[in-house]
Amino acid sequence: MADLPRKAAARTARLAALPLGYAGRKTVGFGKRLGGAPAEAVMNDLQQRTAEQLFRTLGELKGGAMKFGQLLSVFEAALPEDVAAPYRDHLTRLQDAAPPMPTSTVREILARELGADWKEQLVWLDGGPTAAASIGQVHKGRWHDGREVAVKVQYPGAGEALMSDIKQLSRLARTIGPVFPGLDIKPLVEEVRARAADELDYTLEAEAQSVYAKAFANDPEIVVPGVVAVGKTVLITEWLESDSSLARIIKEGTVEERNHYGELLVRFMFAGPSRTGMLHADPHPGNFRIIPNDDGTPGRLGVLDYGAVARLEEGNLPRAMGTLIRLAALGDAEALMDGLRQEGFIKDKISLDPQQLIEYLAPFAEPTKVERFQFTRAWMREQFARINNPRDPAFTIAIKINLPASYMLIHRTWIGGIGVLSQLEAEAPFNAILTEFLPGFADAG
For all residues of the chain together, what is the average pLDDT? Predict the structure, then answer.
């Protein structure tokens, strides 16, 4: 594939075929059922075929389509097991790979971005990519000073493809929805739209990564590669030696690995804002690389991809966020109601039952109420089902809560991080980490 499929009509047709394919398979499945096939076998076959088409299409199109698929992958732990099981392999595969573009195209882009003498700076470039993402792919190279580097090059036509995909996915949100029962697709599409411009500009990503690299330069647990050179569609960083990501730990990791890397993920999520004033807002497993110790035991966690960051207004996560989480854990309904109103989570004319509010928020505060909390797929699914069931009191509260604009990316990242922890089935000292890094948490109550 020379580059991203660039014709809007062709991309639109591929995406439009997703719900049509699902509907067609559903009809075939109904016919099989009439013919005597067991219902469970028919449903498993339907889900498997749907997963294959959905994630193959999202991965091959890259752009906004693949970015949308990566966002879906973070929430996989929230889906019912009978739905999640046939998708899991496809989701994991999407987190780490996509079809490559030719090296000749990569060299043309390097010449355009770095100048005709780019080979004097980048003295060696691997012939094939080592990784691929939604809008770019990565090659290994060697800088003129002897350092091994990662060369990330944006796919030609990425901007056009990204905006075309977002427009089409917005139209298809309702029809893609049945593939993921209970998951609200529209906000995920809007998330891709909101971040599109920043993610296309590698100079902004380089700026954010440089700040993170400096902040974590001497950290014994977290590794952030430094920036070596940058152009608008090329980003060269120090090479991070790692043969796998959190996706492998999710699939086959030991209990020790799950707990160790899960704790490092939590530490990075909260230490990052306190040190940099920014929030790394793309918590899908492929961005977190495993760096074992020399003896093979769990070691450091490398963190990549700073194209999606929230630049925080207070220079850290909001103090009110820590206060509200702590009040929910303490069960202080009146103070919690007041705080939520002050922050805009409850609008002036909205009336809520304080006790129902505490019950609604209790599971989200649960990880902070014990010394160590184990996140599990079952726990995540329980919370997800609770707030999406119209017969559950939590549903009534959920539809009345407002999410202020300043919290949107924070909220999505928080939920996404919990989704990854639940996929890991990791146990972590959540309370201690929030006490150390989240403003307002230790002071409330």
Answer: 79
Written as six digits, the tokens of 169 are 């996915």
* Beta-sheet pairing, 227-231 with 278-280: unpaired
User: Is the domain of 71 the same as that of 134?
Assistant: no
- Distance between CA atoms of residues 162 and 196, nearest Å: 7
Q: Is 2 inside a domain boundary?
A: no
327 in a structural domain: yes
pLDDT tens digits for 258-293?
Answer: 999 999 999 999 999 999 999 999 888 889 999 999
SS (H, E, C) 113-142: HHCCCHHHHEEEECCCCCEECCCEEEEEEE
**Integer angstrom CA distances of residue 1 from 45, 53, 99, 128, 148:** 30, 18, 7, 13, 27
Helix orientation angle between 158-176 and 8-34, rounded to the nearest 10 degrees: 30
Query: Residue 244 is which amino acid?
Result: S
Token pair 């505490």: residue:
358
Please state, in angstroms and rounded to a whole number, the distance separating the CA atoms of residues 72 and 94. Answer: 10
Question: How wide is the angle at C-alpha 365 spanned by C-alphas 361 and 370, nearest 5°?
Answer: 150
Check whether residue 74 and residue 19 sit in a common domain: yes
Q: Is residue 144 part of a domain?
A: yes
Residues 127 and 179 in one domain: no
Distances (CA, A) of 119 to 97, 101, 139, 193, 333: 27, 20, 14, 36, 64
Sign of the torsion angle spanned by Cα atoms 323, 328, 332, 334? positive
Q: Two tokens at 173?
A: 């949100």
Please give the residue range of the domain that contains residue 221: 103-158+198-238
Judge if 130 and 64 occupy the same domain: no
Q: Which segments of 308-353 are extended strands (E)?
A: 309-311
Does residue 280 belong to any structural domain of this protein?
no
Distance (Å, rounded) from C-alpha 302 to C-alpha 242? 8
Residue 408: which residues within 8 A CB-CB, separation 6 or more? 194
Query: Can you say whether residue 249 is alpha, beta or left, with left for phi > 0 and alpha for psi between -120 and 50 degrees?
Result: alpha
- The predicted pLDDT at position 398 comes to 82
Domain count of the fold of the chain: 3
Number of Cβ atoms within 10 Å of the Cβ of 76: 24
CATH of the domain at 217: 3.30.200.20
Query: Is residue 75 domain-shared with residue 142, that is, in the same domain?
Result: no
Please indicate, yes or no, whether residues 208 and 107 belong to a single structural domain of this protein. Answer: yes
Q: Are residues 112 and 202 in the same domain?
A: yes
Encode pLDDT of 312-354 as tens digits.
Answer: 988 999 999 999 999 999 999 999 999 999 999 998 888 898 8
Residues 272, 433 contacting (CB under 8 angstroms): no
Tokens of 240: 């991070």
pLDDT value, residue 32? 32
> Quick one: 91 and 52 in the same domain?
yes
